[in-house]
Amino acid sequence: MNAFLAQSAYFGLILTLGVYVCAVAINKKWNVSLTTPVLLTTAGIIVMLLALDIPYSSYTNGAKYLNYFLVPATVSLAIPMYKQMQHLGKHKMTIILSVVLGCAFSVGTAVFLSWFFGLGDVISRSLASVSVTTAIAIGITKELGGIAAITVFAVIVTGIFGNAVGRQMCRILGLRYAVARGLAIGNSSHAIGTAKALEMGPVEGAASSLSIVVSGLATVILAPLIVYLFR
After folding, report:
1. How many alpha carbons lie under 13 Å from residue 56 in its C-beta half-sphere?
2. What is the DSSP string of 113-125?
3. What are phi and psi of 220, to 5 degrees?
4. CB of 122 closer than 8 Å to CB of 147
5. What is the rounded distance in angstroms from the CA atom of residue 165 to the CA atom of residue 200?
C-alpha cells in the first residue's frame, strides 16, 4: 500500500488538499492560533508522511502541481492593494519609514542573535532575510554567501508563525489602525502572513501586500550592510 502511494503521481496533491480541507474544518470549529489551517496542514502532512514511511521526494512528485498556482496567487495580492491605493497613499511616508525600520530591526535581530549565540557567519548570512518572501530571500542569501535551504526553512516557519498569531499579536501590541496591523503582519511574515491579514480586512490585506514589496526592496539594501557590521 505504501509503495503504491509513493509511486502515485497525484498522491502529494491529494494528500495536501485533503489535509487542508480537514484543517479548515477544524479551524471553523475551534478557531484558535494552534488550529490555523496553514499550521495544521503543514503538521498534518509531516505526520502522514512519517506514519506511512513515504519519502519527501515521492510527496513532491505530486504536490509540485500546486506550484503552478503560486505565481497567480502571489500576483493576486496586488488586487486588494490596488483597490486601497488611494487610502494607502495618504500614509506613504509613514508606510515607507515604518517598513524600513521594521526590516532593519528584523535583519539586525537575526544577525545579532546568530553572532551572540556563536552560530557562525554562514548561519548569520542565511537568516538575514528571514522576514521577506521566499524568492527574494533566496536571492539575498546567495549574494551574501549563506545556505538557501536554511533560509527557506526559516522563512516558512516565520510565515506560519505570523499566520497563526498575527491577529493576537496585533491585539496584544494595541495596534488599532488597519494600516498598522497590515504593515506589521506583512513586514514580519510576508505572503503567508498576508493571507491572515486579508482575513482581518481589506485595508489590512492591502497594507500587508504593499509591505511585502517595500520590505523586499529594503532588505536587499539593508541585509548586506548589517551583516557586514557583525563580521
Report:
1. 3
2. HHHHTT--HHHHH
3. -60, -35
4. yes
5. 12
Q: In this structure, what C-alpha cell is assigned to residue 55?
A: 519519502
3-state secondary structure of 194: helix
List the grid coordinates of 211: 509591505
Give me 178's grid cell. 488597519
53: enclosing H helix or E strand: none
Q: 202 with 170: CB under 8 angstroms?
A: no
pLDDT tens by residue, 140-177: 998 888 898 889 889 888 988 888 888 888 999 898 89
Q: Whole-angstrom Cα distance, residue 86 to residue 81?
A: 9
CB 18 within 8 A of CB 70: no
Please give the pLDDT value at position 5.
60
> Is 203:177 a contact under the CB 8 Å cutoff?
no
Closest CA to 95 of 174, 184, 167: 184
Q: Which ranges of 36-91 does DSSP label H, i.e. alpha helix? A: 37-52, 56-63, 70-75, 78-83, 85-89
C-alpha 128, offset from chain centre? 14
Question: Which of the two residues, 217 and 71, has the higher pLDDT score?
Answer: 217
In angstroms, the CA 218 to CA 223 distance is: 8
Grid cell 525600520 is found at 101
User: Does 19 score more than 90 pLDDT?
Assistant: yes
Lookup: cell for 28: 471553523
Cell of 71: 505565481
